[in-house]
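Researcher: Re-running this chain for the archive, since the previous output was lost when a drive failed. Same request as before.
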Amino acid sequence: MPDGPRLKIDGGIPNQLTRAAEAAGALEQQGYDGGWTPETSHDPFLPLLLAAEHTSRLEVGTNIAVAFARNPMIVANIGWDLQAYSKGRFILGLGTQIQPHIEKRFSMPWSHPARRMREFVSAMHAIWDAWRDGSKLRFEGDFYTHKIMTPMFTPEPQPYPKPKVFIAAVGEVMTEMCGEVADGHLGHPMVSKRYITDVTTPALLRGLQSAGRQRSDVEVSAEVLVATGETDAELQTATAAVRKQIAFYGSTPAYRKVLELHGWGDLHEELNRLSKEGEWDAMASLIDDEMLTTFAVVGSVGEVGAALRRRCEGVVDRVLPIFMTASQPCITVAMKEFRQ
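Model: Regenerated structure tokens:
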């Protein structure tokens, strides 16, 4: 894994429009490399316009935007505009979501997620190439077809490269595909350091090799849960919150393989059963200290930053720490330790 470039540190940008500009400006002022918006209760793209307007250096991106809720033409157009407005600082982070949400929340088709995502990215590149080079748009795939592009619908040229495309992946098939076509890999908080080294990295390298690409052609980003506090009481509160979050993720079938890697496959069954009964506190009590430190960085505000760096350095290229319940002054102190 990487041994040259320094480990980048990213932060979150709220997807509420009233908060995005101030938060992005604060990240840049504090020395962060990137800021990400999620797609939850608000659109993930609109806040990035404000983030780009109020920063000059910070990379801004979606982590993630739901690809299958949209089509390649719509996303290509948004990505082109945000790349131009940010002067080349936009990262398009895409994820699949899960089948029930795609079909029942977004009313969109679901099938063959890895193949569909590969085609989605390829279609966007074909559209961007047509806009950039003036080449004829003729993309015909199994899921998407784009064959009409007239001058009226072609955006103005821009001096920046095509947006970087990052893909969220946990499973080996999606991760391998990411290595073939993406500029970056977006990890998930419910992924351990061992899972990255034993599962994610080999799959990514297989994809890179099959596409004739190098490890330096893709950035690997990790999200890491962090529990810290300036007092014992604050640390205890944060630790309890992290246990609950790990229990929630562990109850989801998508992360069973992560637990199985550590010999905790049976825990998923129990967590899943309790989640259906709404026993959230009982679920958290099943996350012992070994599981806690496998999936999270835990410690005092003076030590947690260095611990986070040790966990990620040489394993991934950039990290997005998720501080549970910590105050902003506490996070600031921890990040100073991260950089030392």
